[in-house]
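Reading a protein record of the kind used here takes little practice once its layout is understood. Each number in the token line that follows is a code from a learned vocabulary of backbone shapes. One such record is shown here in full, so that the layout can be seen directly:
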Amino acid sequence: MLIERSPGLTKDRLGSQEIEIMKMRMYVLALLVGVAPMALAVAQSSPEPMSQGNNLPRLGEIMLAKQWRHMKLWFAGKQRNWNLAAYELAQIRASLAEAATLYSNIPVGDIVIMAEPIHLIDKAIQSRDSAAFVNAFNKLTAACNACHREMGREFIEIRVPAESPFNNQAFPPPAKQ
């Protein structure tokens, strides 16, 4: 999994207790990530967030942002722009965690459905393995759809993008100087 690190923070500088705390945080995040795909289905039956604040995003908005990130992740990975792919994957994780945090009534039964595909995508990005990326991305897409079907929302079907709607963004990695 990707971990945002402070400059100069290396494994050598971390104590074993700090490493264990970081691992525990990543496991908790993985669990939260698994809950969020069900959020879109819950949004239609439960439109109110845990807090009644007016400034919180609706669950459908969070899931729509995740869908855009899903597309951008695909095009970044296909173009082997691994830095952009890592960024988009981190944004997907964050939006899923946000949904799980803000909406307490999201079912937790399928908490692991997204964790494995996200881990596999992360691994493919870190190893810069295009074939593994495609395979893992397909698993992520299938996991989204499995969650939708399980929640009775089979009419929400996510697919691997065929063409980019982002004509204002370059997906190939920047040319080396």
